[in-house]
Write a sequence for this structure.
C-alpha cells in the first residue's frame, strides 16, 4: 500500500470514528436523563417544559370539557433511575396501587362542573406508571439535612381516546420531598391538584411552555 | 286605615329581618357545622357526645357479643361540610378505599374472643363513608384531619343498631396512624356494647 493510500485509509477511519461519536453523543442525550422513555407514549410527541408539569404534550385542539374521564389502573413501575433497590421498588408498587384512587379524588374535585371522572367508563382514558421512585431516608432527612435522604416519585401519565386509542396528552413529572416536614405522598397529592387545574384549562400550559431540550 | 304603602320601608325591612331571625332560631343548627348529615343514618337518632367518639347513638340493649360483623366497602367520599381542595380529595379517596381493610384488621384484633369480623355474610353490617378530609400541607385552612360516618345495621332486617360520626386530627403522626389508634378505641367500646353512648351528653345543635 502506498503512503498516500495509508494516509487516506487512516483519515477515513478517523472521520468514521468521529461521525460515530457524534451520533452516539446525540443518542446518549435523552430527556430527563433517560427516565422519560418516549416509546411509552408513542411517536410524534414533542414535549414542552412548564412550571407545574416537568414535561407535557397535548394534541392541538384538545379539550376535556363535556367528556367523561375513565381512570384506569396503572401499569407496573419501570424504575429507570440509577441505583434503585428493593425499598424503592416496594414504594413504587405501593404508589402504583393507590394512584388511580388519588387521581379520581383530585380530578373529580378540580374538574367538577367541567367533566366527569369515573372508575369504570368514559370516552377518554387516563393511565400512568411510575417511571422512577426513590424511597429516600427519613433518618438522613432528620440527621443530615441539606437534601440528604430526599424521596422522589417520577410519573408518566397519558390520556387517550378510548374508542380510537389516539394519544391526546402526555405527561412526565417528578415530585420531590426534601425535608422531614413532608412525605412524597403529600407532594403527589399537591401535584395532582395542579395537574387537575391544568387539565381543567385543557393543558393550555403546554403551549406556553418551552420545547424540552435533550 | 293606613294603607300598606304608607308604612315606612325601613319598618317593613326591620320587621322582615326580625321574622327571618326568629325562624332561623327555631330551625336546629346542623351538627358538627353541617358535616353530620342525619339523613345518612335515618330517623329517630339522638346523638350523644363522648370522649372517644364525637357523636354516637346505639339502640337500647345493643350487643355484638357472639355475632359476626361484616365490614363493607366504603363509597367514594362525600364532603358534607366545607369545600375542600383537590389535594384533600386525592388523599380522601385513597383513605376511603383503605378503611375497610383497616377496620377489619383493627377490629379483628380488638374483638378477639368476643365477636367475629368477616368479609362475607355476617349477622351485622358495618358500613361507613368519609365526609371531610384536610391533607397535610393545606396551609391556612385547618389542621390535617379526617371525619367519617359509620353505622352498624342488622344484616337480616336492615334495622339501624349503631350510628356514629367522628373526626380525627393529626399533627405529628399521619392521619392513617391516628385512625388506627381510634379503631382500637372503637373496638374496646364495641366490646363494652357501646355503653359510653348512654353515658355521653346529648349532642347540642
Amino acid at each position: 500500500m502506498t503512503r498516500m493510500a495509508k494516509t487516506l485509509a487512516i483519515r477515513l477511519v478517523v472521520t468514521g470514528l468521529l461521525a460515530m461519536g457524534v451520533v452516539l453523543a446525540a443518542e446518549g442525550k435523552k430527556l430527563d436523563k433517560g427516565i422519560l422513555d418516549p416509546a411509552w407514549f408513542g411517536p410524534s410527541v414533542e414535549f414542552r417544559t412548564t412550571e407545574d408539569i416537568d414535561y407535557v404534550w397535548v394534541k392541538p385542539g384538545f379539550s376535556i370539557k363535556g367528556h367523561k374521564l375513565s381512570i384506569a389502573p396503572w401499569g407496573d413501575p419501570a424504575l429507570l433511575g440509577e441505583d434503585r433497590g428493593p425499598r424503592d421498588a416496594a414504594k413504587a408498587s405501593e404508589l402504583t396501587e393507590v394512584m388511580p384512587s388519588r387521581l379520581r379524588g383530585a380530578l373529580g374535585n378540580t374538574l367538577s362542573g367541567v367533566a366527569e371522572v369515573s372508575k369504570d367508563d368514559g370516552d377518554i382514558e387516563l393511565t400512568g406508571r411510575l417511571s422512577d421512585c426513590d424511597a429516600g431516608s427519613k433518618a438522613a432527612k432528620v440527621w443530615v439535612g441539606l437534601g440528604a435522604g430526599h424521596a422522589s416519585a417520577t410519573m408518566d401519565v397519558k390520556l387517550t381516546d378510548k374508542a380510537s386509542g389516539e394519544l391526546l396528552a402526555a405527561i412526565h413529572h417528578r415530585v420531590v420531598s426534601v425535608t422531614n416536614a413532608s412525605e412524597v405522598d403529600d407532594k403527589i397529592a399537591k401535584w395532582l391538584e395542579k395537574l387537575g387545574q391544568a387539565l381543567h384549562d385543557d393543558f393550555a400550559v403546554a403551549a406556553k411552555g418551552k420545547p424540552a431540550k435533550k | 286605615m293606613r294603607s300598606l304603602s304608607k308604612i315606612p320601608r325601613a319598618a317593613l325591612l326591620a320587621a322582615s329581618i326580625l321574622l327571618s331571625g326568629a325562624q332561623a332560631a327555631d330551625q336546629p343548627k346542623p351538627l358538627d357545622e353541617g358535616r353530620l348529615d342525619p339523613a345518612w343514618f335515618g330517623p329517630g337518632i339522638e346523638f350523644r357526645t363522648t370522649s372517644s367518639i364525637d357523636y354516637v347513638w346505639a339502640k337500647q340493649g345493643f350487643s355484638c357479643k357472639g355475632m359476626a360483623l361484616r365490614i363493607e366497602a366504603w363509597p367514594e367520599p362525600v364532603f358534607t361540610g366545607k369545600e375542600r381542595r383537590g389535594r384533600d380529595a386525592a388523599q380522601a379517596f385513597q383513605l376511603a378505599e383503605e378503611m375497610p381493610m383497616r377496620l377489619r384488621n383493627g377490629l379483628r384484633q380488638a374483638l378477639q374472643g368476643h365477636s367475629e369480623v368477616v368479609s362475607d355474610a355476617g349477622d351485622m353490617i358495618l358500613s361507613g363513608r368519609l365526609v371531610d378530609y384536610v391533607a397535610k400541607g393545606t396551609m391556612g385552612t385547618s389542621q390535617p384531619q379526617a371525619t367519617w360516618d359509620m353505622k352498624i345495621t342488622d344484616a337480616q332486617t336492615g334495622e339501624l343498631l349503631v350510628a356514629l360520626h367522628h373526626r380525627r386530627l393529626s399533627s405529628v403522626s399521619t392521619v392513617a396512624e391516628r385512625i388506627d389508634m381510634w379503631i382500637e378505641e372503637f373496638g374496646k367500646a364495641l366490646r363494652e356494647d357501646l355503653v359510653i353512648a348512654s353515658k355521653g351528653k346529648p349532642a347540642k345543635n
Q: What stands out?
A: The beta strands of chain B are 48-49, 55-58, 68-71, 116-118, 124-134, 145-154, 160-169, 201-202. Chain B has one domain: 31-202.
